[in-house]
Records
---
Amino acid sequence: MFVRFFYSAVDPADSDEVQRMFVEDIKPAFEELGCESVELLVSTETNAGGLVEGLVISRWPSTAAMAKALGSRAVTESLVRVRQLLRQEPVTRTFEVLE
């Protein structure tokens, strides 16, 4: 199993829109394309720059499944819309879960 982290921050005024996009667009697309689970974590306080930090954690059966989903039209289009709201360059990391 592989876990992917996608971390960034948004203006507090855009927080509800990002959450809506996650629930309506990103989560269904990921799940339809083989993602075993996906969660959006949001900071409870703003950071030093006044931004709301967020982290999407997704679990995948393989890196091939992850790459296929991330390259799909549905996910690509959703990420383009989300990236327009980001105020920090996103950081992504992928980890393998060792049994």
Note: The first helix runs from residue 15 to 32.
---
Amino acid sequence: MNIKDIVKDNTVRFVRYRQGIAYYGVNVPAEGNYIFPVPLEDIGDATLELEDKAILFMRYIRRAIREGSFVPLAS
């Protein structure tokens, strides 16, 4: 997966929260919907929105792909 193709002109959506981790979903062109974790300890005083620009989450998407936690969102 090419990270630039995932984040360019795309949005992420909040899916759920569990044990200090916010999970966001993103639609990957030609692949489908994926989910990835955003640890709240990394957020500091930033605001997590229900929907936001994917480019702002590029760091978390890249990390999730590398660590294997960027997974298809079950329907």
Note: Strands lie at 11-18, 21-28, 32-39, 51-53, 71-72.
---
Amino acid sequence: MPDFEVDPVSIDVGRLVRRNVASLYSSLVTRPTGQAVRLAIENVLAEEAGPVSLSVIDLSHVTVIDFSCADEVVAKLLLRFLEDDRPRDAFFVFRGIRELHRDPIEVVLERQTLAAVSETESGAYEVIGSTSWEELKVWQALEGRGRVKPKEVHDLVPGNGVEETLGSLVRRRLVFRNPLSGEYQALSDLLHCLT
């Protein structure tokens, strides 16, 4: 368990669709459906999450997602928690993104220069969306190690600017930085500590 309290929240989007949109199917194919699901996710966070949370947004039971729903459920959700007036420090890992989901999600993320951490079917983690080469290289190095102490940052990858790049990844909610220890932690490592 981390030495700073992070609330784990697991959200099954397929279940939210069926419960909040009165549909027997778990398809995300209209903007109003996507908006209803995003608002339901935000309500779950308001009820279950403390000041800092790591949420697994599970798309495994979503059969179809179109561009407008990807924009509402993924991009607008991320944007809301990147804002200065966000209701809490929320980090997200997306699970169950299958090939048919990938294109709409990546397109809306890249269009808005957003990125997200995704758990693959094999259980590995990747960044999807828009990242710089430096961000991707540093993120992958941290993902490989799990976490680094502040004094170990410069050993993460060769070259200059590693600390600045980690700072960018933290601001983009792709990496967690413990406010007590200053340690940088991959979201996958944080998730494993919480479960």
Note: The chain has one domain: 7-194.
